[in-house]
User: Fold these one by one.
Assistant:
Number 1:
Amino acid sequence: MSTIQVRLPDGSVREFPQGTTALQVAEAIGPRLAKAALAARIDGVVRDLTTPLEKDCDLEILTWDHPEGREVYRHTSTHVMAQAVKRLWPEAKLTVGPPLENGFYYDIDTPRPITPDDFPAIEAEMRKIIEEDLPIVREEVDREWAKRFFAERGEDYKVLLIDKIPEGEPITIYRQGEFVDLCTGPHLPRTGRIKVIKLMSVAGAYWEGDQRNKQLQRLYGTSFEKQSDLDRYLKQLEEAKKRDHRKLGPELGLFTFKEEAPGFAFWLPKGYTLYRILENWSRSLQEPRGYQEVRTPWLYSSKIYETSGHWFHFRENMFTFESESQAYAVKPMNCPGHCLLYKNEVRSYRDLPLKIAEYGPLVRYEPSGTPSGSRRARGMT
């Protein structure tokens, strides 16, 4: 049997039979590392621990201490949550479920809205799946086979997602027990590797972020290796709520948010006074440095954004509409308008640098359910 050389992070090189998995390398290094292993970085790419090593490579075993390790851990947690929902509501249809920095979510088309009252039943099923310690297996499959497979299971959204995968790219699925999901991975080797898991909240989210599409249930959760880490995280969230600007703003009479204008702040007298003080302070810094303040329109035809390229690459992040057979967009950034100002007269290199400042409203489209006060807003300056 051929052998390969595996270079480890400390610079040492070890020899293994060709086809040895990353997990087997971890086991050879030591039982402690093998127990902590969550995924592997092979030649710079994060992979499953069960990935066979076919050639000489650089290998790093990822644990909870690595951000990528935590991401894989929570990615698998997402699948456990989706599997639990499918067991409780077999007619539910899955869409996408990515890991987040401190948790994960899955957008699911459910026969009825999921509420926090359903969380205990879902969590109990999740714990059952973890206790079953199901092996998680990656498979590369044929495109047409995958479409038939998910269509037969009633997973219409998965069929749509397969159609969006460019030709020539591999189609991969992950199996754990009866559960099969379209996914690029990577994942933990077994469901039993997850130790602590909790559902956090549920919200509405439109398929593909388009309010013209059906509204789905976005189920949020989090997972940790230790209960003490979860307890600490929950305590941090409680402390953060006390200092949440969405709570303090109205209490201090600075600003407020209303469902009639999601993603936009209503500035109250005291808050707007502070706003203008900060704005004028910014002017006091810019003017001595040669900035000239201008004011440009907040509504443009699509032509300017076609020229700038925004229309083709960022249109889904803009508020657009049509009037008199012409497409328009509310201004999401100042630069195209400033380019028009630059064209307004003949310029010389001697005019450079030309410093322009503008304090005007900008609007960017954020899907329903994603705006979060001023941290993620639709309206900004």
Number 2:
Amino acid sequence: MKTWSMIQQDTSFWKRLSAAPQCAFLFDYDGTLAPFVSTPSKAFPYAEFPPLLLQLMQQPRFHVSFITGRASHELLRLLRLPVQPEIWGSHGAERLLPSGEVTPFYDRVQYFPAFDAAVRLAGEAGFVLNVERKPACVAFHLRSLPEEERRDAEQWALAHWGRLAEQMELELHGFDGGLELRVPGISKGRAVETVRRELSEQCEILYFGDDLTDEDAFEALGRQGLSFLIRPRFRETQAQYWLRPPRELAGLLERILES
């Protein structure tokens, strides 16, 4: 696992980037570009990142996409960029293009009753404030709960949402801070694979993420790109590099823009 200090001295890394005719930057959001906060709707990016992201987007050689568990329009509001980027929302279940067009990759009508049932069950159990409804999933947030309550809430969600997942053909996934009931077959890895197919074979793809949900993207990218775990503390991962947010990630982007 290579850290920021090692990357800075790695001449082969910088030669690889400079030799690529095109580079694609794929960013997770929460925990990567923005800190975790108690109110998700107020999770604005670290101050370093908006100007750096805008500079990347203005370079003809660079492609920038965001791949997030949030709804695409919600992330657009938080980013506050003067130009509209490409956003893969709900773990790749919907794609917001720079033109403003949104393409869903799931049947909304088919799964909405199941999501309604998940929200209703959580509300009846007293967890209404822990549930977040998204376009292609429902999140059960545990991070704000005291440790003992968190364990009980997680067990409740595993039992009740797990049963609902089996009945309604959904998938129950863990993330860093909770659980998600999700449309089957949707993942950040699938979004990465789509982006990679659409770009030239010579394009160098860089993926930045912090969460367990980003492991699908790290796996999909493999050694055909450059994958970065963005976390204050290291954990086991399929990523090739580890950077601490925000300073080390900002340092990497600054050096890329300067080269």
